[in-house]
Each structure stands twice: as structure tokens, then as C-alpha cells.
């Protein structure tokens, strides 16, 4: 073979000088602590200046760069312009704010760098422990199974894949989706888009995701669902599953999970709960009663990088019947065959419970964080956010130019600026402009949605760093901006 590179046997990718690597990493820790302890001093978000763009259109670096230079680039062009969801006044979409204990867990996960596909290793025990804790939180049976995945979208896909496999009535892994009566899945009109993606990806067709109307509080109309199931059965369709949402993305509404569990039982349907937002609120005594019935679900999605504040990415699917779960995904080729001794022994092979073979050690940050703070602390942060949502709601109610446009569900407050005598279109434009200016001025990052035809600000307070004064600041800023924006129209 022609040798074109000049490699040496003792070359590797470790630091050439461990002492300076140690120094660099110590500096990194100092910088990270500085960053996190001074969040309030900085804008929530800031637009990226054009001048940074060339730094991200560089040719592939063929040779080494000075680590110090790389760290400087990180600080100059990356740190200031990330999303901002770690900031106390970030309330957009639905994010978590991260924890230092989670950072330490992720750091160690990368240092150890094990592959959680399977095998005899402590890392698997950590994941199993975290899953057991989640079962305990959900009041789920301990013989249930579970797997940590990248996020709520993947957790929904895994849960629905098990539902489809178990409910199809034939060997769907062998036969595929051919030649069957279309299988139908039901969810409310407020269902998250990830569910539709899962249905599409599984080849079931989004036309067979039947969306059930909601009541005035944005929860699923269970009697409408019942009628739809009957109608579909009469039309020769094959209903297989109902998805209840525990905390909808628009308004935080929690479907009547107990009612849905009853209906699924009598109709012999799989009951999946998309609890990406609200399931972890089982930790809050304030919310727990509203989640009654979640413990009866056949599968549950729990997103841990949202209201549990784990650094992205981590979520969990729990499946009540471990056999159903394993039968959906297990495939053991020769090169993964099990031994009774050694590294390839043991029964904890998470690759048999999901799509991924190689998997990162995402359990570690959850394990470390739950131990460091205790689960009750996370529950208190959830309750605090709910109190803050209602505080904000009261401030809105008292204000002559602000109005709530949906009931407050969990920690989500939907409202708009409305000084009166303006058309729907005008109000929509005013509120869009207020939102943009709040962001561009770095004051706050509100979310947004459209309810009915009303564009509104949507404050989703999944943020352990927010304080009441942050909501006062929000109201004052909206007051001032609203006045200016209306005057300039
Ligand atoms: C966020 C969300 C999802 C998707 O979760 P990701 O972690 O973003 O993949 C699913 N369902 C609901 C209700 C959500 O709010």
C-alpha cells in the first residue's frame, strides 16, 4: 500500500501534554460557572450579527489549531448567540433550563463514553435505576419496562410502535403495513406534531390519526371520541390506540386520563399518554390529582429535558407490558449474541427495547441530578412555576389592556395585548411586534401561538430560575411596548 500520510505508531488523539489539558479543562469549568452564575446580567437572546457568519463557513481544518484559539472562538461566536433557554426570562416553546448537576453527569458520560446498547456494565444499572425511579414517580407497576431516548418525539414513536405491534393482530414486523384494514389512532386536536410524524413514519398514514374535538378547556371530548370509535368500526376501520395528552403544547391542558383509561379498557384499545410536558408533574402534589389515570396507561412518554430541566437530550418511554415492548424491537444477530459470562452477558440490553443500537449514557445526568437535589426539589420547582403562572394570570386580569385568551393549564399562560377598538388583524400584528421586540431587546423570550384566530403570547414557565419579579418586568415591558407599537401603526 502506498503510504501518503506520515503516521506514527505512538500518535493518538489524547492530549500531547496532559498537564496543559488539565489546565485547559480547569479554565473551562471556571468559564462555565461564570457563565451560569451571571445569566441575569445578559440579554435573554440576541440576534446574531452578520459578522459572525464567516466563522461558520470555513474550510475543513486539515491540521491542528491552537486549543486556546478554539476556546476564544467558542466564547466570541457561539456562547453569546445560543437559544437562551437557560435564562430566567426564557418562556418560549417548552424547554427546560438545565442544571449544574446535569452538566456534571453529561461530562462524566462523555469521559467514560460507554455504549448503552447492552452488556455487563454499571452504566446499564444506572439507566435501569433511573427508569425504576420514573416508574415510582408515575405510580407505574415495577415490572413494567422502559427506555431512555433522545426526547419526547422519540418516546412517542417508541410507545406507538409497541401499540401498533401489539394491536395489529398479525405479525407486522414480518408483513409490514400491506393488506390490512387501516389502523386508526385517536388523539385530541391539540395533539403534538411529533405524534403525527410517528404515525407517518410507521406507514400508518396521517389520515388515520383521527383528531378528536376538544372542550372549552382544550381537553379531549371523551364522548365525541367514543362516537368516533363506533363510527370507524362500523366503517370497517381498525381502531388500535388512543393518545391522551398530559399537558398540551398550546395551553397545558390535561386530558381526562382516567376517563380515557376506562374507555380504552372497554373498547380494548391501547392507551398511550403523551406526557412530554405534564407527566413529570406527578412530582408536584398540586398537579398529581389532575394526572389520575396516568398509572393505567399502556405506555407513557416522559420528557426529562423539559420540566425536569435535564440538559438536552433525554426522555423516557415506559411500557406497562415488558414483553410487548421487547417483542416490538428485539433482534439479536450473531454479532450481538449473548454469553452467560463476560462482557456480553446479562439481561439488560436496551437495544432490544428501542431503535438505537449504540446509545449514550444519558441516564447518568438524571441519576446524579435526582440524587443531588432529591426528587421533591424538582416537584417544588414545578409547583413554583404553576404559582407563577397564576400570579401572571392575575396581573393580566387586573390590567386594562391585557387579556387571557385561554384557561391557564399547568404553567402555560396565553394572553394578548388588547387596548380595545382594534380589528383581529391589527391585534395580531401588534402582538407579533411586541413579541419580536421583547426578544430583540433581550428582555424576555415569550412563546406564541394562535388560538381560534387570535395570535397570542404564550408564556411557558418551565424554568426553575424564574422569579415573580421577572413576570412584573414582563408586564411592564409589554405595557410600554404595546403603547408604542399601537401608536406607530
Ligand atoms: C415537546 C413535546 C413533544 C416532543 O418532545 P421533544 O423532546 O421536543 O422531542 C411531544 N409532545 C408534547 C406534548 C410536547 O410538548
Question: What does this 3D model show about the protein?
Answer:
By secondary structure, this protein is an alpha/beta fold. Helices cover 40% and strands 13% of the residues. It is built from 14 helices and twelve strands. It has helices at residues 18-37, 67-78, 100-112, 122-137, 152-167, 172-175, 193-201, 222-234, 257-267, 322-329, 363-373, 375-398, 424-440, 468-488; strands at 90-91, 145-149, 183-188, 209-212, 238-245, 270-275, 299-303, 315-319, 402-404, 412-417, 445-451, 454-460. It has a seven-stranded mixed β-sheet, with helices on both faces. A hairpin with a 7-residue loop joins strand 9 and strand 10. Helix 13 packs across helix 14. The protein starts with 17 loop residues before the first helix and ends with a helix. 43% of the residues are buried. The model has no long low-confidence stretch (mean pLDDT 96). Pyridoxal-5'-phosphate binds next to helix 5.
Main sheet: strands, sense, barrel? 7 strands, mixed
- Uncertain regions: pLDDT < 50 for 5+ in a row? none
- Averaged pLDDT, please? 96
The percent range for helix content is 25-40%
Keywords:
489 residues; alpha/beta; seven-stranded mixed sheet; five-stranded mixed sheet; 14 helices; 40% helix; 13% strand; globular; binds pyridoxal-5'-phosphate
Brief digest:
It contains 14 helices and twelve strands.
Helix and strand arrangement:
Layout: H1 18-37, H2 67-78, E1 90-91, H3 100-112, H4 122-137, E2 145-149, H5 152-167, H6 172-175, E3 183-188, H7 193-201, E4 209-212, H8 222-234, E5 238-245, H9 257-267, E6 270-275, E7 299-303, E8 315-319, H10 322-329, H11 363-373, H12 375-398, E9 402-404, E10 412-417, H13 424-440, E11 445-451, E12 454-460, H14 468-488
Parallel strand pairs: 1-11, 3-4, 3-5, 5-6, 6-7
Antiparallel strand pairs: 2-8, 7-8, 9-10, 10-12, 11-12
The structure holds pyridoxal-5'-phosphate (PLP).
Pyridoxal-5'-phosphate binds at residues 94, 151-153, 156, 192, 194, 245, 249, 274, 276-277, 303, 315.
Amino acid at each position: 500500500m502506498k503510504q501518503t500520510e506520515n503516521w506514527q505508531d505512538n500518535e493518538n488523539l489524547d492530549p500531547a501534554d496532559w498537564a496543559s489539558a488539565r489546565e485547559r479543562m480547569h479554565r473551562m469549568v471556571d468559564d462555565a460557572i461564570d457563565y451560569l452564575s451571571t445569566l441575569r446580567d445578559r440579554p435573554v437572546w440576541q440576534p446574531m450579527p452578520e459578522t459572525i457568519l464567516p466563522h461558520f463557513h470555513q474550510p475543513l481544518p486539515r491540521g491542528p489549531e491552537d486549543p486556546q484559539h478554539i476556546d476564544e472562538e467558542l466564547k466570541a461566536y457561539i456562547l453569546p448567540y445560543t437559544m437562551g433557554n437557560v435564562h430566567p426570562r426564557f418562556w418560549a416553546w417548552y424547554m427546560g433550563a438545565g442544571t449544574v448537576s446535569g452538566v456534571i453527569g453529561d461530562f462524566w458520560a462523555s469521559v467514560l463514553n460507554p455504549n448503552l446498547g447492552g452488556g455487563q456494565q454499571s452504566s446499564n444499572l444506572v439507566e435501569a435505576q433511573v427508569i425504576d425511579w420514573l416508574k415510582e414517580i408515575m405510580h407505574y407497576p415495577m415490572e413494567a419496562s422502559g427506555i431512555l431516548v433522545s426526547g419526547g418525539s422519540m418516546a412517542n414513536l417508541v410507545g406507538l410502535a409497541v401499540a401498533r405491534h401489539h394491536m395489529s393482530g398479525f405479525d407486522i414486523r414480518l408483513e409490514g403495513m400491506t393488506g390490512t384494514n387501516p389502523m386508526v389512532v385517536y388523539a385530541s386536536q391539540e395533539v403534538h406534531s411529533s405524534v403525527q410524524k410517528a404515525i407517518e413514519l410507521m406507514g400508518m398514514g396521517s389520515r388515520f390519526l383521527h383528531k378528536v374535538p376538544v372542550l372549552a378547556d382544550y381537553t379531549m371530548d371523551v364522548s365525541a371520541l367514543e362516537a368516533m370509535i363506533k363510527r370507524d368500526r362500523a366503517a370497517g376501520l381498525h381502531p388500535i390506540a388512543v393518545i391522551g395528552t398530559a399537558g398540551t403544547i398550546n395551553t397545558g391542558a390535561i386530558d381526562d386520563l382516567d376517563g380515557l383509561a376506562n374507555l380504552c379498557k372497554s373498547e380494548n384499545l391501547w392507551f398511550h399518554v403523551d406526557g412530554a410536558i405534564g407527566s413529570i408533574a406527578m412530582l408536584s402534589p398540586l398537579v398529581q390529582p389532575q394526572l389520575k389515570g396516568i398509572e393505567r396507561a399502556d405506555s407513557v412518554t416522559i420528557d426529562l429535558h423539559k420540566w425536569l430541566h435535564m440538559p438536552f437530550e433525554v426522555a423516557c418511554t415506559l411500557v406497562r407490558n415488558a414483553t410487548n415492548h421487547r417483542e416490538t424491537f428485539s433482534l439479536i444477530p450473531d454479532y450481538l449474541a449473548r454469553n452467560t459470562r463476560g462482557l456480553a452477558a446479562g439481561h439488560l440490553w436496551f437495544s432490544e427495547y428501542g431503535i438505537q443500537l449504540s446509545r449514550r449514557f444519558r441516564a447518568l445526568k438524571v441519576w446524579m441530578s435526582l440524587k443531588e437535589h432529591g426528587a421533591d426539589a424538582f416537584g417544588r420547582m414545578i409547583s413554583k412555576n404553576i404559582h407563577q403562572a397564576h400570579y401572571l394570570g392575575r396581573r393580566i386580569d387586573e390590567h386594562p389592556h391585557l387579556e387571557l385568551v385561554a384557561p391557564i393549564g399547568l404553567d402555560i399562560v396565553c394572553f394578548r395585548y388588547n387596548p380595545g377598538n382594534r380589528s383581529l388583524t391589527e391585534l395580531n400584528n401588534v402582538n407579533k411586534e411586541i413579541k419580536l421586540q421583547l426578544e430583540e431587546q433581550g428582555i424576555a423570550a415569550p412563546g406564541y401561538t394562535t388560538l381560534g384566530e387570535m395570535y397570542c403570547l404564550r408564556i411557558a414557565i418551565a424554568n426553575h430560575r424564574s422569579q415573580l419579579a421577572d413576570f412584573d418586568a414582563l408586564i411592564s415591558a409589554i405595557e410600554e411596548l404595546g403603547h408604542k407599537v399601537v401608536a406607530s401603526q
